[in-house]
Amino acid sequence: MSSLSYNDNSVSAVAEVGDEIQLSLQGITKVFPGKKDWMSKLLRRTSPDFMALDEISLDIKHNKFVSIIGPSGCGKSTLLNIIAGLASPSSGTLLMNGYSLEGPGPDRGLVFQNYALMPWMSVEGNIAFALETVAPTMPKVQQKRAVKENIELVGLTGAEKKHPHELSGGMQQRVGIARALAINPQVLLMDEPFGALDALTRGFLQEEIERIWDQQRKTVIMVTHSIEEALLLSDEIIMMTRGPGAQVDEILEVPFPRPRKREEVETHPEYNNLKLEMEQHLYRETRAVEKSRL
Q1: Can you list the alpha helix ranges (DSSP code H) found in 14-137?
Q2: Global confidence as pTM
Q3: Which residue spans traverse the membrane (predicted)?
Q4: Strand order of the sheet with strand 236-240?
């Protein structure tokens, strides 16, 4: 894979963390302010502050595949957006390799659920656009090589000139993955990347992600609602409690050897025990959410 060079202004002061830790979240809290302006008061539509995340502390090691799972509305995507630099925590510290992170940066690539492709650009144009944005001084020859390598990586050779409307949902998401990987990020962030796909396409892309991860061994953090998806892909699974004030309930270690095949994972002696534990957690937290609405 072609290496990139760029100036990254998203990192600042250094802090003490272990060498094996790539990402460290220390006391991350996120509060969304309520409506308290004079117009809201006049219309009697005021609302209190909403605490989405409460003192989230995590250490994520280099080259691990980590999934975040929890009931709907527990702040999974909010947490991922904070890691991506798209949102700021109300309090707490986010460190990468011991340096404080502030705002987005090319050290983190993001794959969206809705693909977020430029509709007027071809497959290679979408990937090249990411490279031009991150590394504008990259020689054209190197840029073309990086585009070609990443198109091959996600299995889209032959579709380079096609536009998003000419591609299936699975192919569009592969473009999104290639675009995120083209900038050679240290960490790949994925927000329910297969949520909009049919079951067969979803299963195929899960296996493709396993293959790509096994080749590149990047640190991956993925938000998902699927227990089976988390068990197939992850080294660790972060189970979050319900909101408001969501916290980390437990972190599961996934013992399945790599490289992984779905049929081997599903027949592993620990598979059913881990699946049951996750199901019970989600059922308990979801039931509590429903009771709170009564």
Answers
A1: 38-42, 76-84, 123-134
A2: 0.90
A3: none
A4: 108-111, 187-191, 219-223, 65-69, 236-240, 248-253
